[in-house]
Amino acid sequence: MADSIIRVLAKDAPVKASAITARDMVERARQIHRTLPVATAALGRALMACSMMGNQLKEEKGSVTLQIKGAGPLGRITVVSDSSGNARGYVQNPQVDLPLKGPAKLDVGSAVGLPGALTVIKDLQMKEPYVGTVPLVSGEIAEDVTSYFAESEQIPTACALGVLVEVDQSVLCAGGYLIQLLPGADDGVISAIEQGIQTVGPVTEALRSGADARALLEQVLGAFELEVLAQEPVEYRCYCSRDRVTRALISMGREELEALIREQGKAELTCQFCDQAYHYSREALEALLASL
Length: 292
Known about the structure:
The protein is α+β, with helices and mostly antiparallel strands.
């Protein structure tokens, strides 16, 4: 089942929703960063939340950055999505391991830790990006995303995210949904959504039973008639390149470049998102210096 995002609108109620299945995206992140299970789950949840938020953007070249910084051992989690939902990210301490908090239940909340903050940066291709920050509610990420939408964007939201890790530490399944109320939603609509969420239960169980992104929304929003707005594939995608790294080196300026050549005689820069290493010899650095 290929990774994908679906966006729907209820025809008979003021409700919009997105759902994602992202097993390959999260597994790719695990392989790149060599995360242990609790870090895999935390990074995977953040990637999927950011992916769905990015996919909501109307600006073709826009992006969403999600930063989670708690008091737990994982440290900072940073993820970025383009406007199609292709995402990339990393966790500061990928080798964190914690005891399970229940049968097959990874303790993401303790790994992220409280107190802390969730920050969303939306680059809408304007002069200044939109930045919103809220305190972490639980560190479980889905609840924190729900809190962000309620506090920063005043959009009542239900968010569920799940990553199921195999005994060999690979990702078995990953997915989630964002359900949002539009103006005019009454108590009956809210009750129907709450009932649907309770009926479906944990996202990972629905995915393990064979549900894809569309089936996930059809189950949760079974009380409504849904119109599919878009469904498209997504993947773990990094946009780093030697050209971008070269521009970053040039932006250091003449003095810092001269100091780098004098003190190290070479440079090796590694992308935080995909671990791609870019090597620059003394001659290459001197050529950059000459270009200034």
